[in-house]
Specification:
The protein is of the alpha/beta class. It contains 16 helices and 21 strands. Helix 4 (about 135-145) crosses helix 5 (about 145-155), helix 10 (about 310-320) packs antiparallel against helix 12 and helix 11 packs across helix 12 (about 375-400).
Amino acid sequence: MRYIGSLDQGTTSTRFMIFNHDGEIIGRHQKEHRQILPQPGYVEHDALEIWQVTQEVIAIALQNANLTGLDLAAIGITNQRETTVVWDRMTGQPLHNAIVWQDTRTGQLLGRLTPEEKAKITYSTGLTIAPYFSGSKMQWLLENSPEVQTALENGSALMGTIDSWLVWNLTGGINGGIHVTDVTNASRTLLMDLETLDWNPELLSLFAIPREVLPSIKSSSEIYGLTAAEGPLEAGIPIAAILGDQQAAMVGQVCFDRGDSKTTYGTGNFALLNTGTQIVRSHYGLLTTVCFKLGDQPVHYALEGSVAVTGSAIQWLRDQLGIISHAAEIESLASSVADNGGVYFVPAFSGLFAPHWRSDARGAIVGLTRAATKAHLARAALEAVAYQTRDVIDAMAQETGVTLTRMRVDGGITANSLCMQLQSNILGIEIDRPSVNETTALGAAYAAGLAVKFWQDPTELKEQWKIAHKWHPDLTSPLRSEGYETWKKALSRTLDWA
């Protein structure tokens, strides 16, 4: 029997999962990596640590499943998007810590752009002008790192998102590694034209990024190359899919058709709506992005609403405030009180993303009294996840004229039943969680399996999708009206502070 492997490199951890033909998980391993915070607004990762962790989780997942690399028909890769790596192709060493998507240091660089330049970028790429995206991170590295400048002069610098770094290493690194990315990751750089699906020369010039350091742009589902025999798989296995994490979740939720949508609850929250082969340009603070491109099939686009901080707010309560020891404890703590006690938490640690796009905003906790407890703050944090998601879903309804009646969800926070019930109440719609909640990894596996005909077509995959749990809204809940109005007042305080 053959299987499909999926390498899921996320913001806080890396995991390798192995799926059978029914889409069931038969092996896995996961490990966290460090979050490097040199100063306010800076968020970095050690790309070499990520590669080391990647090798470890692949080896242990195979061992746990009593398999070898030869048992895999292919592997797919999904990754935290926008996080930017630069490395030396001669030594294989990163030249600077990776700059993470949450990092806001490039605000001043983007401030140099004229209104005309900003309009040109947005029209070409479908993205708003924000430090979130990779282009300004690349520009910052080229301008501020002597090591990068030296490697550029020597012709040895390579630059890309995390997927490119991993593929290069998996295919041999300094011994012939290939330098590629896919259309979903490239569409998050401020550098790829949505219509041509290629690097835009004008935008490369605006950001002063040499084309030769960037990867070639491929589809999301094809064989890019084989893993090196001396690598963690110890065999030449096809790498047959690359997808940014949110697009991978769309594939994992079998959102192959126009009008399909899902919301992923992870470090941040991401709601996507498949707009088919049509580019829908946003007027309400959403992003127009590539949804996926399966081999030589036409590209599908999406509208996306991105929230910077949801799951990472729970990590903050754990790591910085110490009010919980493990993330899972927040549900019981929040459930110990009947409501938020008037406390509202706006976790704008990295500014506000969709639909507000204010990188200068900062977090706020409002409504505190002597009666407020850590339980009230925990409940306010879960409500913040749901309120921020409503901001995005409301913008999506304005954009398309379509009001959602149900929403497919995935990601770690969906294991928190209280949070999902709050979400259902605040949106006033049904929430559906699939039987395989690891849809990001599953989507990368599906795309890889389609490329090697492990699965024949998307119709076969749709038949595998099943609902594990539904949450029905309490239409009498005050959270949907008064609660949401108070949330918007609390959110305005983050802008007042800025």
